[in-house]
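Async update (no meeting this week)

Hi team, since we skipped the sync, here's where things stand on the single-chain job. The sequence we agreed to prioritize is pasted below, unchanged from the tracker. I ran it this morning and attached the output directly underneath so nobody has to dig for it. Comments welcome in thread, and please keep replies under the output.
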Amino acid sequence: MKILKPYFFLLLCAFFACQSNETKNQEEETTPNKRVSIDEIEAGIKAYIDAETADNDGYFLINDEEKKLRLKLVRVHTEYLSNLGPSKHFACVDLADEKGDVYDVDFFLEGKPGEMKVTETSLHKLNGKPFYTWKQVVDKTWRKVPVETASSDLLGVVELEDNFDFTYYAQLPELKEKAKVWIPIAQSDDFQTITVKSMKLPKKKRNIEDKENGNKMIYMELGPEHSGSEIEIIYHVNRIEKGPYDANGKIDPMYLEPNLLMPIGGEFEEIALEATKGKENDGDLVRARALYDYIIDNMRYMKFGDYGRGDAVYACDTKTGNCTEFHSFFISLARSIGIPSRFAIGASIPSDRNEGGIDGYHCWAEFYAEGKWWPVDISEGNKYTALATYNFGRHPANRIELSKGRDLKVNPSPSTGPINFIAYPLVEIKGEVIYPKVRFSFERGA
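Output:
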């Protein structure tokens, strides 16, 4: 027995060593990799662009098929930043060239926070028009799909019906003085059924109404103690696809009158008459389609310059803008030749995924012809030529409408007068509008 003791001791040590290593391996296998945050991905892509810009005389360089592009950072799409695996990430960034053309560029990155390397770069869009789109396949990876062969759902369209939770979030900036706040509240109608699931506000609200357009809003008076406060409203939305629908009663004359940023007559009438030349006796439906085609053919979707106010004069002069300019221009043209038309704004819900961030607000229009209101989405028709016909007379189910109309009159009113349009919270301090941080997101099947 004395002879066996040393061997027994060694076997015992080996046994416990193996057990220790096995336990360690099991712990390593079961310890999940720390998920890289969206903020860390944003920091990684910004650091990469900053470094490349510093090395190239202040420009980020991309080799296109025809030329070398010299670009400057406009923004990072935080709503599209995502993790593709333990150390693989995706980022989408807007960069503008010296002429003002805006390129949407997709980046794939690998590595840990602070050590991320870009492994692939591709030009996704030019001034809002895509060269390709993305499709998620069975194994949860993503592949490129040429726009010409993409189905409607990959181009932003959900037909028939859609159901989702929509989160409306804003964070107030620093308030050094008393502030007034107006927030739109989505309403149910024939095409959307709205349920408020929860509402978080910094102070007891006051409900007010824009009776002319049927909009409802929250009004609050806040102070410095509310600096940084959060606003969060979670809606459940059931929405159906909108097509041409019967008008109820007489058409309100305001749909033929000018708005502050949507004038009529003058150059607008001249353009509208030229665009509809030869179609004077063909009816308002044909003439409206001619205006729709004129804008698609002559405008560029571009978030650059003084865009986003829905200024029809700016749209007419520059032939650029976002959805607000496209539809304001259309309304000014249509009203100038006697076609009633109106404006609405909300958000478009992504069709190619079931949760995540939303790229801000989206707006659209309607015009009256042949006894019906006809929905149009001209900026989407401009982006996706394959859907130009669909977007004349249809609005897909994957959207939420937050408010209607322009020059909204409420009481209390901002000191600057009627509200141009409202999607984001309007915050006013001493007659000056300040902008809170806003984030929209959604989830289907919640």
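Quick observations from my side:
The longest helix spans residues 4-30.
Residues 1-32 have pLDDT under 50 and may be disordered.
Reply here if anything looks off.
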